[in-house]
Amino acid sequence: MAEAEEKESLSNEESTDESEEDDSEEEPKLKYERLSNGVTDILQKDVASCMTVHEKFLALGTHYGKVYLLDVQGNITQRFDISPVKINQISLDESGEHMGVCSEDGKVQVFGLYTGEEFHETFDCPIKIVAVHPQFVRSHCKQFVTGGNKLFLYEKTWMNRWKPSVLHEGEGSIRDVKWRGNLIAWANNMGVKILDVIAKQRITNVPRDDINLRPDMYPCSLCWKDNLTLIIGWGNSVKICAVKERHASEIRDLPSRYVEIVSQFNTEFYISGIAPLCDQLVILSYVKEISEKTETECCARPRLDIIQPFPESCEEISSDALTVRRFQENECRDYSLEYSEGESLFYIISPRDVVVAKERDQDDHIDWLLEKKKYEDALLAAEISQKTIKKHKIQDIGLAYINHLIEIGDYDLAARKCQKILGKNTELWEFEVHRFKEIGQLKAISCYLPRRDSVLKPFVYEMVLHEFLESDYEGFATLIKEWPGNLYNNATIVQAVVDHLKKDPQNKTLLKTLAELYTYDQRYGKALEIYLTLRHKDVFQLIHKHNLFSSIRDKIVLLMEFDSEKAVDMFLDNEDKISIDKVVEELKNRPELQHVYLHKLFKRDHHKGQKYHEKQISLYAEYDRPNLLPFLRDSTHCPLEKALEICQQRNFVEETVYLLSRMGNSRSALKMIMEELYDVDKAIEFAKEQDDAELWEDLILYSIDKPPFITGLLNNIGTHVDPILLIHRIKEGMEIPNLRDSLVKILQDYNLQILLREGCKKILVADSLSLLKKMHRTQMKGVLVDEESICEICLSPILPTDASKSFSITVFHCRHMFHKECFPEPSTESSVHFCTICSAKHRGPGSAILEMKK
Q: CB neighbours of 309 closer than 8 A, spacing ≥ 6?
């Protein structure tokens, strides 16, 4: 279409894309622009009467008998003076090389645009129609139809003469004709006919519906959708006709084709033109309305509607009212609609205007979304179609979106969109940051600033940090934690924090942030001091990460006070950097912490801190008595006398008992159990552990006058001491609780022991017999002696080289072999031979022998 600078404005009274409802939220389907350039000049002096469209150019006829060839931008390329009066119809073949023209004075011309005139005839009546064969450029297709009251078919003969033949007559003036493939459709006063050119047969007659409408004022509009589908618009009626092949059995005297009306419906207004759009229809409607001023009927703006047809109804998809020039003066017959199949372009022709309608592309869709302030949808549409859009850029749409969000006060969403829209463009980022600063919304954009790729200048980040430092310590601390330290000048921010701490020296948030800044600046000592002061959990991570063990030698107590468990684990994991002696020395004034450290050390390794085991006795006794006894049991380095002294001083009975027994004073230990603990079960358990007969005797003597103790002994000593010894010593008449049950248990235990012994004996006998049989079978097996066998003493072959000589050898079951003469004689004490290699003294696997003689 025409370039932007040459387009005429379509606003106000000349706007052609004005909708009936300006504020409608429904997006239009088509966009419009006025065909200008040469067309403007033509219509200033003349009036358009008809037009036809080819994919390469346009042909415009006027009331003054001129035909203009135009390019698609409306520039005049050729002009033909056909007649002094109105041009009624123009027809082009598919090649665009031949044109047919008819005029109101009866003239009909068919000529080649590049080869000269082909046919010129003047009829005695106005000629409304002409249509050349679509393949007119071919020699065998030199045909065209024209006529007034009669429809003539002109064919070129072999002598280059034109031969006319009448195809139809007698039904009034013919006002429209369309030729597609081998089918011709025309409309007269009675209806629409379709003719098969090849068969020279008329296929059908489609009568017009409203016979009250004057056909000259409300002409028929014909349009071929494809080679077999005709669209008819007449009055307010639309019919879609499909040409179909008749079955061979049905032909008889009928044409080989027939027409089926697949869709039929009425419209609200009178039809001035019709065209297909995919499976929809584009209809140009003539509208009349009642004037508010005069209250009389007048001509309104024509409408261009997109309709979805159904078999017996339709659905309006879109409807646009078009403001064409001097529309108030026009009638239904003054409008027409032409279209270009390949590009989906629709031309609305009126006497003083030509408007082009085209399907809206993605750029137009984005324009509409932006106009409706639907920036999010516009941005999404641009991203999806970024390869096809030509007018818009994603970044420009995004910036407009950001501007809109800032205007309506949605600063958080505007800041969030910056991250996606601005991308790696540092200049745009810096511009937006300054803009957010001007409106006092730096906090909103802070968390979306670039941090890794395409970082901004340091002053931008410092500006944001200063903003937070003045009003939001928590937000400032969050940014320092999240932002890498290389984004800003660390020294500048450190100084700013120090200045604020002068006003509020106990502010934990600022102190923690200052420690992080010191860490970024590799001033770990200062950071560590702050973390310890704050008792911050990251102190141990800082020490490990930056190997600050040399800096904490004098801070051991602080670390233990902060988190003794983590501190001890750290000290023990790094003994090479902080020795055990150093830790113990530092904790000498804090024995409770010293105990925690030494206890963990002992748990890890019983021997590493052995020189502190003596000290640990008092520490366990003071701070952790439950672990004292396990310590005494596991330690092999603590002095028992010192431990006994401490336990006796503190009256720790269990620990004293253990130490006495370990030092060999079992009787004192047992006495202490009986007298201090008064626990017969513990005493019995102790006696079992020591397994000393004298200790059992002492236990019996101590318990003999104590019935509860006697009951306990009767229940437990049956497997260690003969119960008779205890029973004989019980005084006659002493009442012993549960005596019967205890005696029954003793008998049961005795029976159990007898059964166990008998069972063990049976198992032992069975195993011995089985092994004896196995040994016998083994010793009964033969032993292989061959040429490779040697005497273990002389190391010569065991078999003689001369098999005829006699020999004698000794073979043991251990596979060792000896010559008889080489093997030593048995001692006088025993006549049994033993293998001198396997067993010289004891009877073993090689003791039995085999003697071989020959």
A: 238, 240, 263, 265, 280, 281
Q: What confidence tier does 854 reach under pLDDT thresholds 50, 70, 90?
A: low
User: Distance from CA of residue 128 to its chain's centroid?
Assistant: 66
What is the pairing mode between strands 66-70 and 76-81?
antiparallel
Q: Which residue has the tokens 């999806």?
A: 384
Backbone angles phi, psi at 171, to 5 degrees: -125, 30
How many helices and strands in the chain, by DSSP H and E?
28, 33
Q: What helix, strand, coil percent values describe the chain, rounded to 5?
A: 40, 25, 35
Give yes or no for a contact between 514 and 497, defined as CB atoms under 8 angstroms apart: yes
The three-point CA angle 724-726-729 to 5° equals 105
Alpha helices in 781-835 (DSSP H): none
Residue that is written with structure tokens 């001033």 in the block: 523
pLDDT in tens, 80-132: 999 999 999 999 999 999 999 999 999 999 999 988 768 898 998 999 999 99
Distance CA 444, CA 71 (A): 55
Q: Which of 216, 148, 156, 204 is CA-nearest to residue 177?
A: 148
Q: Report the chain's terminal Cα–Cα distance, integer Å.
A: 129
How many Cα atoms sit within 13 Å of 788 on the Cβ side? Answer: 2
SS3 string, 330-382, reads CCHHHCEEEEECCCCEEEEEECCEEEEEEECCHHHHHHHHHHCCCHHHHHHHH
DSSP code of residue 9: P
Q: Which residues contact 351 (CB under 8 A, 6 or more apart)?
A: 43, 47, 48, 49, 63, 326, 329, 330, 334
Q: Could you give the CA distance from residue 91 to residue 601 in angstroms, rounded to a whole number?
A: 108
178: its two tokens: 């369309």
| DSSP-derived secondary structure for 81-117 | E--SS-EEEEEE-TTSSEEEEEETTSEEEEEETTTEE
DSSP-derived secondary structure for 232-283:
EEETTEEEEEEEEEPPHHHHTTS-SEEEEEEEEEE-SSEEEEEEEETTEEEE
> How far is the C-alpha of 393 from the C-alpha of 147, rounded, in Å?
55
In whole angstroms, how far apart are CA 339 and each of 108, 238, 342?
A: 24, 18, 9
Distance CA 701, CA 695 (A): 10
Q: Which of 345-359, 379-393, 575-589, 817-831 has the lowest mean pLDDT?
A: 817-831
Is the pLDDT at 441 greater than 90? The verdict is: no
User: For 565-609, how does the pLDDT look when each residue is reduced to its tens digit (9 = 90+)?
Assistant: 888 888 888 888 888 888 888 888 888 988 988 899 888 888 888
Taking the C-alpha atoms of residue 554 and residue 397, their distance in angstroms, rounded to an integer, is 62
3-state secondary structure of 390: coil
Q: Which long-range contacts (CB under 8 A, 24 or more apart) does 543-552 make?
A: 543/570, 544/570, 546/519, 548/524, 549/574, 549/577, 549/578, 550/577, 551/524, 551/525, 552/528, 552/578
Q: For residue 282, what pLDDT is reported?
A: 95
Write the burial class of residue 187 (CB in 10 Å: 0-12 exposed, 13-18 middle, 19+ buried).
Answer: buried
| Among candidate residues 302, 259, 305, the one with its CA nearest the CA of residue 281 | 305
Comparing 113-127, 494-508, 525-539, which segment has the lowest mean pLDDT? 525-539
For helices 362-371 and 375-384, the axis angle rounded to 10 degrees is: 160
Instruction: List helix spans (H) across 721-819.
Output: 723-729, 739-780
* Residue 814, both tokens: 């251990």
807-to-414, 660, 790, 814, 854 alpha-carbon distances in Å: 114, 74, 14, 21, 5
